[in-house]
Prior knowledge:
heterodimer; A: mainly alpha; two-stranded antiparallel ribbon; 12 helices; 2 strands; B: mainly alpha; 11 helices
Amino acid sequence: MSALPTGSGIASVDEARSRARAAAETRQDAAFHWTLFAAAGFVLVILGAAAASMLWGGRQAFETFGWHFIVSDEWDAVGHQFGAFVPIYGTLVSSAIAMIIAIPVSFGIALFLTEIAPTWLRAPIGAAIELLAGIPSIIYGMWGLFSLVPFMAANVLPWVDGNLGQVPGIGPLFRGPPLGIGMLTAGIVLGIMVIPFISSVMRDVFQTVPASLKESAYALGSTTWEVVWKVVLPYTRSAVVGGIFLGLGRALGETMAVTFVLGNAHQLSTSLLMPGNSIAATIANEFTEADSDIYLSSLIALGFLLFVVTFVVLAIARVMLYNLARKEGR
Amino acid sequence: MLRATGFFYRRRRAVDLFAKTLGIAATLFGLFWLAWILLVTLNNGIHALAPAIFTQNTPPPGGEGGLANALFGSLEMSILGVLIGAPLGIAAGTYLAEFAERHHAWRESVRFVNDILLSAPSIVLGLFVYTLAVRSVGHFSGWSGGIALGLIVLPVVVRTTDETLRLVPNIMREAALSLGIPRWKVTMQVLYRAAAPGILTGVLLGLARISGETAPLLFTSLNNQYWASSINAPTASVPVVVFQFAMSPYESWHALAWAGAFIVTVFVLLLSVGARAYLLRNRIEGAG
């Protein structure tokens, strides 16, 4: 833009001033923009940096043991032999138990909160269930150790051992001394912890089903259950799976609650009643005891494995959840 | 009126009733655990509370004492975590909501990564900060604990800032920009003012989340039996002390662990319930 000739000196001073001001504002805007951009970039970088730093920290373990790090069950701090099969197995099994408990219960809660409960009851009950998610995991751990473990040992596990333990096929899973501490108890605590995450996703996505779809089904004479099973669930399937994976991601990486009730035993046993270990619990228990470089490196390598697994699970969860959001046009 | 009374009709009704009963049972199941956990924590905690908790340091094995150093350490590192996580999170969230409309792929990938950070295991973030800020410096410190907590606050604040700013009606941006106000001023003085309750809620929820966080502190601030001489020294925190004391065989340590658990639980629950109630009362007008 070319400057217009101005009549008086005062006007040109004004103009120069306003131009200087406009230039300053442009600079400030650019600086502001770049600051925000850098912050967003930082968020993006952290995740990659975390993965890279743990891969770097665990490289000694990966180099020394190779594939044996994942498939070997020998965890010998004195002899410097580290195989992570026991913690990996424990993480997978305890999370599986958690999901077996949490998925049906969360579905039931979502069903209750969207279709069964009277409207005035929905908000308070929903808030109460979400409180479960607000309780810090260390509290779950303490409660698990001091209340659930004795209760399981005295009342539940003898029955499990005596009845489920005798069933052919699955019997060996449920046979063992009623210690209270062990894989089954850890799985139950994990299950309770992830219920609020899964049920709140399910409730939220159930509410996105267009009323006209549900009302059409009701008008054809469907029962509530048929509407949920044949209309609501098919409509929200991908997001429901996303919510389940979100809960699974939580269960896999949960540390403190599991550390309290799992027993920290590097021993592989078929029975769910026996103590075991998980990736997160191993790291939490042994990190400060790691007295050699290879020990420390093995623990960081375990962290890397956990990171990779949870990243994959959470990424699947997000993609599944985005699918419904896109259908909604949001 | 036509009445269906056949076998199939009755079976459908029975299945429906059965499903509804299971739904109610599942909800009662969830509430049962909530009640049990809260009752145990509150009951044991109230019996263990004593003035000494707030005035004395953590005792040696089997001794009597309090949690003063741990309470101070937790407070110090939580504040540090919020001071690190909140400004970064607000900046990144603002970028996503306001300045990235022409960079769709880039914006969505930041949102995607942030969503993953939001549910990533905190122990992994702790290990990351360990390799970054403990190993390189050579000792555990309150600083590194604060950084680890900051990384946990960050995604919460990014998410809430992003979502809240997107609720601010466009007409406010247009009105301010049409007066010739530069964008940074519009953001700072108009949008932030409208979105303040939502952003503040995000910060409070982030604070609630780190107040009970244990796993990342195990590798960063470690623990300290005494009053930490500076923020550069290993620092005690309530959750780590609760972990250490609860796993110990000493009765007096167990009592202190329950007291710590009680303080953490009450603080976290009040904070998260309070933050949500505050948001409900101060929602952005015209944006549901």
